[in-house]
Amino acid sequence: MARGIEIRDAHFPDRAPIDAYGNGGFRFADMSHRGSLLCLPSGIYGWAPDEADPLAPASFERVLAEAGDIEVLLVGTGTDIRMLPAPLRQVLKAHAIMADPMSTGAAVRTYNVMLAEARAVAAALIAV
Q1: 39, 46, 88, 118: least CB-packed within 10 angstroms?
Q2: 96 exposed, middle or buried (CB, 10 Å; 0-12, 13-18, 19+)?
Q3: Range with the lowest mean pLDDT among 5-14, 30-39, 46-55?
Q4: Is 46 exposed, middle or buried (0-12, 13-18, 19+ CB in 10 A)?
Q5: How far apart are CA 75 and CA 14, in angstroms?
Q6: Which one-letter DSSP state was computed for residue 110?
Q7: Which superkingdom, per the lineage (predicted)?
Q8: Considering only 5-9, 57-61, 73-77, 80-84, which range has the smallest mean pLDDT?
Q9: Beta-carbon neighbour count of residue 52 at 10 Å?
Q10: Considering the domain 11-125, what is its CATH architecture?
Protein backbone atom coordinates (compact mmCIF):
# COMPACT_ATOMS: atom_id res chain seq x y z
CA MET A 1 0.00 0.00 0.00
CA ALA A 2 1.58 3.29 -1.10
CA ARG A 3 1.53 6.17 1.31
CA GLY A 4 1.35 9.76 0.20
CA ILE A 5 3.34 12.62 1.62
CA GLU A 6 2.45 13.25 5.23
CA ILE A 7 2.16 16.95 6.07
CA ARG A 8 2.47 17.70 9.78
CA ASP A 9 2.20 20.91 11.71
CA ALA A 10 5.62 22.52 12.06
CA HIS A 11 6.79 22.09 15.66
CA PHE A 12 10.18 22.28 17.39
CA PRO A 13 9.70 20.65 20.84
CA ASP A 14 11.95 22.97 22.85
CA ARG A 15 12.61 26.62 23.54
CA ALA A 16 15.26 28.34 21.43
CA PRO A 17 16.33 31.87 20.61
CA ILE A 18 15.46 33.24 17.18
CA ASP A 19 18.70 33.62 15.22
CA ALA A 20 17.35 35.60 12.25
CA TYR A 21 14.13 36.86 10.70
CA GLY A 22 13.04 38.32 7.38
CA ASN A 23 12.19 37.19 3.85
CA GLY A 24 8.93 35.81 5.19
CA GLY A 25 10.38 33.54 7.86
CA PHE A 26 12.69 32.81 10.78
CA ARG A 27 15.85 30.86 11.63
CA PHE A 28 16.29 29.10 14.99
CA ALA A 29 18.03 25.97 16.32
CA ASP A 30 19.90 25.43 13.02
CA MET A 31 16.58 25.30 11.16
CA SER A 32 14.48 27.70 9.14
CA HIS A 33 10.74 28.21 8.91
CA ARG A 34 8.74 30.14 6.33
CA GLY A 35 5.75 31.88 7.80
CA SER A 36 4.75 33.13 11.23
CA LEU A 37 5.70 31.51 14.56
CA LEU A 38 4.40 30.94 18.06
CA CYS A 39 7.23 30.57 20.57
CA LEU A 40 5.69 28.92 23.63
CA PRO A 41 6.94 27.11 26.75
CA SER A 42 6.18 23.78 25.03
CA GLY A 43 8.15 24.64 21.91
CA ILE A 44 8.12 26.62 18.69
CA TYR A 45 5.16 26.15 16.34
CA GLY A 46 4.39 27.22 12.81
CA TRP A 47 1.50 29.67 13.07
CA ALA A 48 -1.07 30.61 10.46
CA PRO A 49 -3.07 33.48 11.92
CA ASP A 50 -6.21 34.56 10.09
CA GLU A 51 -4.97 36.67 7.15
CA ALA A 52 -7.97 38.99 7.33
CA ASP A 53 -7.58 39.52 11.08
CA PRO A 54 -4.27 38.09 12.40
CA LEU A 55 -4.87 39.55 15.86
CA ALA A 56 -8.26 37.87 16.35
CA PRO A 57 -8.55 35.92 19.64
CA ALA A 58 -9.12 32.68 17.69
CA SER A 59 -5.55 32.92 16.34
CA PHE A 60 -4.23 32.68 19.91
CA GLU A 61 -5.90 29.46 21.11
CA ARG A 62 -2.57 27.63 21.43
CA VAL A 63 -1.22 30.51 23.55
CA LEU A 64 -4.25 30.34 25.84
CA ALA A 65 -3.80 26.58 26.23
CA GLU A 66 -0.44 27.30 27.92
CA ALA A 67 -1.60 30.37 29.85
CA GLY A 68 -0.45 29.06 33.24
CA ASP A 69 3.15 28.98 32.02
CA ILE A 70 3.16 32.41 30.33
CA GLU A 71 3.40 35.77 32.08
CA VAL A 72 4.34 37.93 29.09
CA LEU A 73 3.30 37.50 25.46
CA LEU A 74 5.32 39.52 22.97
CA VAL A 75 3.28 40.10 19.82
CA GLY A 76 5.35 40.88 16.74
CA THR A 77 2.84 42.67 14.53
CA GLY A 78 4.93 42.81 11.35
CA THR A 79 6.92 45.78 10.13
CA ASP A 80 4.66 48.28 11.91
CA ILE A 81 3.50 48.40 15.50
CA ARG A 82 -0.23 47.75 15.77
CA MET A 83 -2.33 48.02 18.89
CA LEU A 84 -3.93 44.80 20.00
CA PRO A 85 -7.70 44.85 19.50
CA ALA A 86 -9.79 45.04 22.66
CA PRO A 87 -11.22 41.48 22.35
CA LEU A 88 -7.70 40.01 22.27
CA ARG A 89 -6.49 42.19 25.15
CA GLN A 90 -9.50 41.12 27.21
CA VAL A 91 -9.07 37.39 26.62
CA LEU A 92 -5.34 37.55 27.41
CA LYS A 93 -6.01 39.57 30.56
CA ALA A 94 -8.63 37.01 31.63
CA HIS A 95 -5.86 34.38 31.39
CA ALA A 96 -3.40 36.55 33.38
CA ILE A 97 -1.16 37.14 30.35
CA MET A 98 0.39 40.57 29.88
CA ALA A 99 0.64 41.31 26.14
CA ASP A 100 3.14 43.69 24.59
CA PRO A 101 2.70 44.52 20.89
CA MET A 102 5.73 45.70 18.91
CA SER A 103 7.27 45.28 15.48
CA THR A 104 8.35 41.72 14.75
CA GLY A 105 12.05 42.69 14.86
CA ALA A 106 11.70 44.26 18.30
CA ALA A 107 9.67 41.26 19.51
CA VAL A 108 12.40 38.83 18.35
CA ARG A 109 15.12 40.81 20.15
CA THR A 110 13.06 41.16 23.34
CA TYR A 111 12.07 37.48 23.27
CA ASN A 112 15.72 36.42 23.02
CA VAL A 113 16.70 38.58 26.02
CA MET A 114 13.78 37.39 28.16
CA LEU A 115 14.40 33.77 27.17
CA ALA A 116 18.07 34.10 28.22
CA GLU A 117 16.83 35.45 31.57
CA ALA A 118 14.62 32.33 31.98
CA ARG A 119 11.47 34.47 32.13
CA ALA A 120 7.97 33.07 31.54
CA VAL A 121 7.80 34.59 28.06
CA ALA A 122 6.07 33.61 24.84
CA ALA A 123 5.99 35.28 21.43
CA ALA A 124 3.54 35.43 18.56
CA LEU A 125 5.60 36.56 15.59
CA ILE A 126 4.03 37.61 12.29
CA ALA A 127 6.57 36.95 9.53
CA VAL A 128 8.10 39.93 7.72
Answers
A1: 118
A2: exposed
A3: 5-14
A4: middle
A5: 19
A6: H
A7: Bacteria
A8: 5-9
A9: 6
A10: 3-Layer(aba) Sandwich (3.40)
**Cα–Cα dist 100/19, whole Å:** 21
pLDDT value at residue 7: 42
- Number of other CB atoms surrounding residue 110 within 10 Å: 17
Name residue 121's amino acid: V
The predicted-structure confidence for 30-40, as pLDDT tens digits, reads as follows: 999 999 999 99
What is the identity of the amino acid at 114?
A: M
d(C-alpha 4, C-alpha 28), whole Å: 29
Cα 40 to Cα 54: distance, rounded to the nearest angstrom: 18
pLDDT-derived band at 72 (thresholds 50, 70, 90) equals very high
Nearest to 24, CA basis, from 69, 84, 79: 79
